[in-house]
């Protein structure tokens, strides 16, 4: 598939539609689709909707990207991650249907995923947008059951535009005529774009702060919409930002006609690796047995702010960030909210990833942000240095999903719950 990658970007979905036609149009034989776009929170919101539907007894599929440790994580069938034999058959069917034509890796694997989903009985399919929305390969679904737009922020500007309005326009490309859409908390500039497109398409919007509200009271999550109030446990996924994500999931489940078992499961049963994940015992805890190890894959300024707010909720403890980022990311923007007393950073790199930011460049951004910084050539070396400096520190691996994948693979626990 990589060998078939075209030399020029095709800014339409025509090539993918042709491939799907050659495959027998699997996109028309899918379970009802819930399509999710946004800059931050897509994965967590998807995980909570999936947990809710599964908790109510439904068979649920999901398509996400990127994977952390193994490609199979991207294609979740009703029984779990796609098995090797099923994946192989789906990829081979796609290559045969493509007949040597140009296609991107993402187009090919999305077509293969649809082929696998169409042959796996299920009640619901959750599709997470890979990049943008309007021209994302997942946007060939003409009549989803529901769409969801999570917070829009500045990221992937080379592809989506250099203003929040332009980026929001790309995300709003998943809206379909008269199909309801859940919209989480947005900046005014982004919400205006989403509302304008929705009005043109007759889309019933369910907007946070207008049509539904979510907050915490006395250690509980409280959700309210026109149907009534829900009093639930706090989300299993950590961080203040997960309250809004949980609200989006609950709003979606309400629109889908779900009841109490789904609401409870959504907040208590969801698992989404590398989102403020506490690492269990494994190879990395052997390096630093007294340390408290955490992992977060956020990589843009909004994610940096969310991580900083989440760390404020933990008991005070000396903190060391072990950070690597991709070269096209806003390192200064990500790190600025994380500068705090009793916190320092070790800059490192993602092994065998040519797009990883140079360690010296990342260290310079960290120092500019006000974080005392040192450098290390690998995550293991960085953790060894952290344990030597302060054996009982709280260590947070952060800055990249690619780093998160390497951490999970090195640690030996994969992307599964502890």
Automatic annotation (TrEMBL):
<dbReference type="InterPro" id="IPR004101">
    <property type="entry name" value="Mur_ligase_C"/>
</dbReference>
<comment type="pathway">
    <text>Cofactor biosynthesis; tetrahydrofolylpolyglutamate biosynthesis.</text>
</comment>
<keyword id="KW-0547">Nucleotide-binding</keyword>
<keyword id="KW-0289">Folate biosynthesis</keyword>
<protein>
    <recommendedName>
        <fullName>Dihydrofolate synthase/folylpolyglutamate synthase</fullName>
        <ecNumber>6.3.2.12</ecNumber>
        <ecNumber>6.3.2.17</ecNumber>
    </recommendedName>
</protein>
<dbReference type="GO" id="GO:0046656">
    <property type="term" value="P:folic acid biosynthetic process"/>
</dbReference>
<comment type="pathway">
    <text>Cofactor biosynthesis; tetrahydrofolate biosynthesis; 7,8-dihydrofolate from 2-amino-4-hydroxy-6-hydroxymethyl-7,8-dihydropteridine diphosphate and 4-aminobenzoate: step 2/2.</text>
</comment>
<dbReference type="InterPro" id="IPR036565">
    <property type="entry name" value="Mur-like_cat_sf"/>
</dbReference>
<feature type="domain" description="Mur ligase central">
    <location>
        <begin position="36"/>
        <end position="252"/>
    </location>
</feature>
<keyword id="KW-0479">Metal-binding</keyword>
<comment type="similarity">
    <text>Belongs to the folylpolyglutamate synthase family.</text>
</comment>
<dbReference type="Pfam" id="PF08245">
    <property type="entry name" value="Mur_ligase_M"/>
</dbReference>
<dbReference type="InterPro" id="IPR018109">
    <property type="entry name" value="Folylpolyglutamate_synth_CS"/>
</dbReference>
<dbReference type="GO" id="GO:0046872">
    <property type="term" value="F:metal ion binding"/>
</dbReference>
<comment type="function">
    <text>Functions in two distinct reactions of the de novo folate biosynthetic pathway. Catalyzes the addition of a glutamate residue to dihydropteroate (7,8-dihydropteroate or H2Pte) to form dihydrofolate (7,8-dihydrofolate monoglutamate or H2Pte-Glu). Also catalyzes successive additions of L-glutamate to tetrahydrofolate or 10-formyltetrahydrofolate or 5,10-methylenetetrahydrofolate, leading to folylpolyglutamate derivatives.</text>
</comment>
<keyword id="KW-0436">Ligase</keyword>
<keyword id="KW-0460">Magnesium</keyword>
<dbReference type="GO" id="GO:0008841">
    <property type="term" value="F:dihydrofolate synthase activity"/>
</dbReference>
<dbReference type="InterPro" id="IPR013221">
    <property type="entry name" value="Mur_ligase_cen"/>
</dbReference>
<dbReference type="GO" id="GO:0005524">
    <property type="term" value="F:ATP binding"/>
</dbReference>
<feature type="domain" description="Mur ligase C-terminal">
    <location>
        <begin position="292"/>
        <end position="400"/>
    </location>
</feature>
<dbReference type="InterPro" id="IPR001645">
    <property type="entry name" value="Folylpolyglutamate_synth"/>
</dbReference>
<dbReference type="GO" id="GO:0005737">
    <property type="term" value="C:cytoplasm"/>
</dbReference>
<keyword id="KW-0067">ATP-binding</keyword>
<dbReference type="GO" id="GO:0004326">
    <property type="term" value="F:tetrahydrofolylpolyglutamate synthase activity"/>
</dbReference>
<dbReference type="InterPro" id="IPR036615">
    <property type="entry name" value="Mur_ligase_C_dom_sf"/>
</dbReference>
<dbReference type="Pfam" id="PF02875">
    <property type="entry name" value="Mur_ligase_C"/>
</dbReference>
């Amino acid at each position: 598939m990589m060998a078939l990658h075209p030399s020029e970007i095709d800014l339409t979905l025509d090539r993918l539609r042709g491939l799907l036609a050659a495959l027998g149009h699997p996109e028309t034989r899918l379970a009802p689709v819930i399509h999710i776009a946004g800059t931050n929170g897509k994965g967590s919101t998807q995980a909570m909707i999936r947990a809710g539907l599964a908790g109510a007894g439904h068979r649920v599929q999901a398509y996400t990207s990127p994977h952390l440790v193994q490609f199979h994580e991207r294609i979740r069938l009703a029984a779990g991650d796609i098995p090797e034999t099923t994946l192989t058959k789906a990829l081979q069917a796609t290559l045969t249907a493509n007949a040597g034509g140009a296609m991107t890796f993402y187009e090919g694997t999305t077509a293969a995923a649809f082929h696998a989903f169409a042959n796996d009985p299920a009640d619901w399919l959750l599709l997470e947008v890979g990049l943008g929305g309007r021209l994302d390969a997942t946007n060939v679904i003409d009549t989803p059951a529901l769409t969801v737009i999570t917070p829009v922020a500045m990221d992937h500007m080379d592809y989506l535009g250099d203003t929040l309005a332009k980026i929001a326009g790309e995300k709003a490309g998943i809206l379909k005529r008269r199909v309801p859409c859940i919209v989480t908390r947005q900046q005014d500039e982004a919400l205006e774009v989403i509302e304008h497109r929705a009005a043109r398409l007759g889309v019933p919007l369910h907007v946070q702060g207008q049509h539904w509200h979510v907050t915490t009271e006395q250690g509980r999550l409280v959700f309210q919409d026109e149907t009534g109030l829900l009093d639930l446990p706090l989300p299993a996924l950590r961080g203040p930002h997960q309250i809004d994500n949980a609200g989006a999931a609950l709003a979606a489940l309400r629109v889908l006609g779900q009841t109490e078992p789904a609401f409870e499961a959504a907040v208590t049963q969801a698992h989404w690796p590398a989102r403020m994940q506490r690492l269990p015992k494994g190879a990395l805890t052997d390096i630093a047995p007294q340390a408290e190890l955490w992992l977060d894959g956020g990589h843009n300024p909004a994610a940096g702010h969310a991580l900083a707010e989440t760390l404020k909720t933990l008991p005070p403890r000396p903190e060391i960030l072990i950070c690597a980022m991709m070269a096209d990311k806003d390192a200064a923007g990500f790190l600025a909210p994380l500068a705090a007393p009793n916190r320092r950073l070790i800059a490192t790199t993602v092994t065998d990833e040519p797009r990883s930011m140079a360690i010296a460049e990342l260290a310079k951004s960290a120092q500019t942000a006000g974080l005392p910084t040192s450098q290390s050539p690998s995550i293991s070396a960085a953790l060894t240095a952290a344990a030597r400096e302060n054996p009982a520190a709280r260590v947070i691996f952060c800055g990249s999903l690619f780093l998160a994948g390497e951490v999970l693979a090195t640690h030996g626990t994969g992307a599964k719950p502890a």
